[in-house]
Write a structure and sequence with these properties.
This protein is α/β, with parallel strands linked by helices. It folds into 2 domains: 2-250, ATPase, nucleotide binding domain (Nucleotidyltransferase, domain 5, 2-Layer Sandwich); 303-431 and 461-492, 2-Layer Sandwich (Nucleotidyltransferase, domain 5), CATH 3.30.420.40. The protein has helices at residues 50-68, 109-119, 121-127, 136-146, 148-152, 160-169, 176-181, 194-200, 222-228, 242-249, 307-316, 322-329, 371-395, 414-424, 435-442, 450-460, 473-492, and strands at 2-8, 13-19, 25-31, 47-48, 75-82, 88-90, 100-101, 156-158, 173-174, 185-186, 191-192, 209-210, 236-241, 257-262, 266-273, 283-286, 296-303, 340-344, 358-362, 402-406, 428-431, 462-466. The radius of gyration is 22 Å and the shape is globular. The chain binds adenosine-5'-diphosphate and 5-O-phosphono-D-xylulose.
Amino acid sequence: MYYIGYDIGSSSVKVALTEAATGKKIIVLNEPQNEMEIVSLHPDWAEQDPEIWWQHICVATKRAIREANIEASKIQGIGISYQMHGLVIVDKDGNALRNSIIWCDSRAVEIGNTAFSEIGQEKCMEHLLNSPGNFTASKLKWVKENEPEIYKQVYKYMLPGDYIAYKLTGDITTTKNGLSEGMLWDYKENKVANWLLDYYGIDPSLTPDIVENFTNQGVLNEKGAKESGLPIGIPVVYRAGDQPNNALSLNVLNPGEVAATGGTSGVFYAVGEMTSGKSTRVNNFVHVNYELETPRIGKLLNINGAGIQYRWLRNNMGDETYESMNRKASKIEVGSEGVVVIPFGNGAERMFNNKNIGTHFLNLNLNIHNSAHLFRASLEGIAFSFVYGMECLKEDNAIINVIRAGNDNLFRSEIFSNTVATLIGHEIEIYNTTGAVGAARAVGLKDGDYNKFGSSITTNDHVMTFLPLKNAAPYENAYQKWKQELEFILTHKK
Ligand SMILES: Nc1ncnc2c1ncn2[C@@H]1O[C@H](COP(=O)(O)OP(=O)(O)O)[C@@H](O)[C@H]1O
Ligand SMILES: O=C(CO)[C@@H](O)[C@H](O)COP(=O)(O)O
């Protein structure tokens, strides 16, 4: 028997099949194979068509069943992980009314800032643990203000993973985790933050019903089964944003444990106990094992412009693969002979209080530097932004005892991983797992045995550990130079 897990990323949809009894990975693949587009009709906007996510899910599912050579009827349950904070709106018939306004879209920054100051920082930080910021509720308010004809037809709003669960089951539901990503979960009152919807003039009936995690959240209907190739009647039992899910996949469940990832976005996600929010540069969300009595929170430091920066170079520098770029970068000395890449060209950065400063390539000497310098400087620039992010996370009182990442995305680059480990002065444990595998395994967690779940990951999947390098000086020099350039831009860019 098998479980299936989905991870709806910004660059592709991943699917994994795992063996139900052992958690063993059977197959992992992604669709499309050449990475998805982010539509940007305006410099601050970022959208994707949710129907395209669904089509990729269907193609990927059929491919996984075929390539793993298993009988679809042996798949017993579904887990879903998804890019966080996006807005999907549907009409009465469940049709998406517009493209999804995704996590890195910056159009709602001003709406969130105004709400934060009018409602009051104290109330927001105590009840939401965050500012309403540029998250889902503020995005819905943007639609209300700017697209009234569309807004009038809204029956329900959803997070991206809720939409996929709906396409599978026909049931429109959401989770506490999802509402917390949208800034719609009131931790103090333990219910939907209808006061924020009221403030935005949004009808609270647009919020879907809430389902608990690790329970039956709805079963596959005829249409979902026909389109995806999965057996009718199997349940969706797990749904979480991709960062809490990455943490679960890496057995990051308790205070002091930290998960990292370097996909389109880059993230440190430190599990902690609930307190009021401290700074808006770091965000707090409901973790997958949040309970009223043991309220586990994910303290999340996000970098919008991480892997997307490396991807941009790959797409624009001729016939390169990530492996060929990594190889060329490894021939260049630490510090990239002075080239500096400030990689923030993917929308407003939360760690700069939602400033949008763009990507900067600096100090290029056309007689000395070539594409290899750009590759190394990009990996370094992204790694330096993780180091800068770690400083913000520590200022926010995050406890950092152990850091874990999957052998996936940017963590496949030694330059990237060594630079981060050396500069934060902390080991990074690498596990042979991905978000899609974690989502599939999470289906088995309906028994609630986190210890068994976690110890199987720690025992079986640990592949290596990046240790801080002994000779940290060249890294430290390069980081200080990068930070100076960054601070100059932050001070001088309006
Ligand atoms: N071999 C590699 N070396 C370095 N970076 C890589 C490699 N493979 C992928 N990446 C980075 O990982 C990104 C994709 O990560 P992924 O986790 O799939 O993103 P998402 O979840 O946003 O869809 C790519 O855009 C690229 O920047
Ligand atoms: O906004 C965040 C986390 O707060 C992002 O991490 C998104 O969840 C998108 O993830 P990827 O597409 O990079 O996986």
